[in-house]
Every structure is written in C-alpha cells, then in structure tokens.
Write a structure and sequence with these properties.
With about 110 residues, the chain is mainly α. The chain has helices at about 5-40, 45-80, 80-105.
Length: about 110
C-alpha cells in the first residue's frame, strides 16, 4: 500500500473510531436517561423506558464490538506493527487472567 493510501486509511479509521465513540456515548446517555425516568416513576408504568433500556443496551454492546475491532486495526497505525503485537498479547493475557478470576470466584466452599 502506498503512503498516501495508508494515510487515507488511517484517517478513515480514526474518523470511524470517533464516530463509534460518539454513538457509544449516546447509547450510554439513553440508558442513563431511561433508568433515571424509571426510578422517578418508582419503576411503575415504565414499559417505554424498559424498551429504551433494552434497545440502548443491545446497541451499546454492538457498538462496543465494532469500536473494539476498529481500535484493533488502529493499533498498527498508532504504534507500529511490532508494538501492536505486544499490546494485543498484553490484552489477551489480561483477558485470560480476568476470565480465570471470574470463573474461580464462583467456586467457593459452602458450609
């Protein structure tokens, strides 16, 4: 890939990351507003707010997945290939440690 093409792709990825970040913030705001409204109603007659909460939670999760994929692609542009490999390895190790802790947290002795 030529240098101008690489710069264009990098700029497009940065713009996409910022767009997804904005959408993720918007979904979080929707979740918060629906939760606040439900609480103000005493969690009664809040079918609309519940549907907004479910919608925003689904979309927030979808955007998180998309944003993570773009971020992963940006690693090479921002940090270079060699450093990007190291960052990905650290993230994978941290994820494995976190999953192990979560699994072991549920296994406790009962009396």
């Amino acid at each position: 890939m030529s240098a101008p093409d690489r710069r264009r792709e990098h700029a497009a990825l940065e713009a996409e990351y910022q767009r997804l970040d904005t959408v993720q913030d918007l979904m979080f705001d929707m979740l918060s507003a629906a939760g606040d409204t439900s609480a103000a109603k005493g969690f009664r007659d809040n079918d609309f707010e519940s549907s907004r909460t479910q919608y925003a939670a689904r979309k927030h999760a979808e955007v998180y997945v998309e944003k993570s994929a773009v971020w992963d692609r940006l690693l090479d542009y921002r940090h270079g290939s060699e450093m990007a490999v190291k960052i990905r390895a650290e993230i994978a190790a941290g994820r494995a440690d976190r999953e192990q802790r979560e699994r072991s947290r549920g296994i406790e002795r009962s009396r």
